[in-house]
Amino acid sequence: TEPQTTDPIGSETPKSEKTDKTKIEIRLKANGNATNYMKKKKWAVDPDKKISSIMEFVKKNVMKGEVEKSAFLYVNQSFAPAPDQIVKNLYECYGTDGKLVLHYCKTQAWG
Amino acid sequence: KESKLCDTFEEPLDTFLEDKSMLENTVEERTTWEYHVMYNQSYSVPTLHFNAWRSDGALLSLEEVWGRALKCYRGSLEDDKWTVLTQQEHPILRRPFYTLHPCRTAEFLESLKEKSSNILITWLSTFGPVVGLLLDFQYGRSVASANH
């Protein structure tokens, strides 16, 4: 098993069921041109977790030295859900095969 | 107490409080935000122009707009705050609007272009939330490209 450091969005579970209390399985994948990426892609999160907390999580774990950037998350690699949106709603709308796939992109967006 | 709202700006896109008696009792501040999507010809990208007013008609300052930016973006905005969010003359209305500087937008969109069937929605869903414009999560349903 992998060592657990700060793991704010939960630990890996092999299966998840579609009930309210159970965690939702998400896959965090790097967008095409990302140079650093997380080895571990499968995560289980509370259904009411906000996208903003996952953005923070990706930022901490992928962009350790790059605090000046933001991590952007996308569903279908094309739409960024609002930061206050919860995983449960996104899973119900965009989930496939029992999981929600989110791509993260850390290209500098402004300036 | 006469409301000055009608005198200070033209056609707001949002409705605002017209019953002044409600203003005295409320402790919550109500702000009105107006957004325009413009095409920037120099950079060949869409840009977001916006303004925000308090209920007394006063424009929010740049500092106040920053204060309202969501925490999840703040880290990346802190460093070059004053070059990222600027105030510029609206190309058509000819009055000051805040705008996110577009110089990196093209590069940013490059990485997403392939997978998106509507790059405008992709762009707006990325940049809008930073300045308070949130899209319903169902907007993304029609955006994935056919090849996905």
Could you describe the 3D structure shown?
Chain A has 111 residues and is α+β, with helices and mostly antiparallel strands. Chain A contains two helices and four strands; from the N terminus they run ββαβαβ. Chain A has helices at 51-62, 87-94, and strands spanning 24-30, 42-45, 72-74, 100-105. Chain A has a four-stranded mixed beta sheet with strand order 2-1-4-3. By secondary structure, chain B is of the alpha+beta class. Residues 1-9 of chain B have low confidence and may be disordered. Chains A and B meet through helix 1 and helix 2 of A and helix 4, helix 6 and helix 7 of B. Chain A: InterPro entries: Atg12, Ubiquitin-like_domsf. Chain A: Forms a conjugate with ATG5.
What is the topological layout?
The complex is a heterodimer of chains A (111) and B (148).
Chain A (H helix, E strand, L loop, with lengths): L23 E7 L11 E4 L5 H12 L9 E3 L12 H8 L5 E6 L6
Parallel strand pairs in A: 1-4
Antiparallel strand pairs in A: 1-2, 3-4
Chain B lengths: L4 H4 L11 H6 L6 E9 L4 E9 L8 H7 L2 H8 L2 H4 E5 L6 E5 L4 H9 L5 H9 L21
Antiparallel strand pairs in B: 1-2, 2-4, 3-4
Strand order of the largest sheet of chain B: 1-2-4-3
Helix content of chain A: 10-25%
CA radius of gyration of chain A is 13 Å
Structural class of chain A: alpha+beta
First-last Cα distance of chain A: 41 Å
Describe the strand arrangement of the main beta sheet of chain A, using strand numbers: 2-1-4-3
Radius of gyration of chain B: 17 Å
Number of helices of chain A: 2
Number of helices of chain B: 7
Query: What do the pLDDT scores of chain B average to?
Result: 80
Strand count of chain B: 4
**Which stretches of chain A are low in confidence, meaning pLDDT under 50 for 5 or more residues running?**
1-8, 11-19
**Rough outline of chain A:** globular
Tell how many strands the DSSP assignment of chain A holds. Answer: 4
Strand content of chain B: 15-25%
Largest sheet of chain A: 4 strands, mixed
User: Which H/E pattern describes the elements of chain A?
Assistant: EEHEHE
Helix amount of chain B: 25-40%
The class by helix and strand makeup of chain B works out as: alpha+beta
Sheet having the most strands of chain B: 4 strands, antiparallel
Quaternary assembly: heterodimer
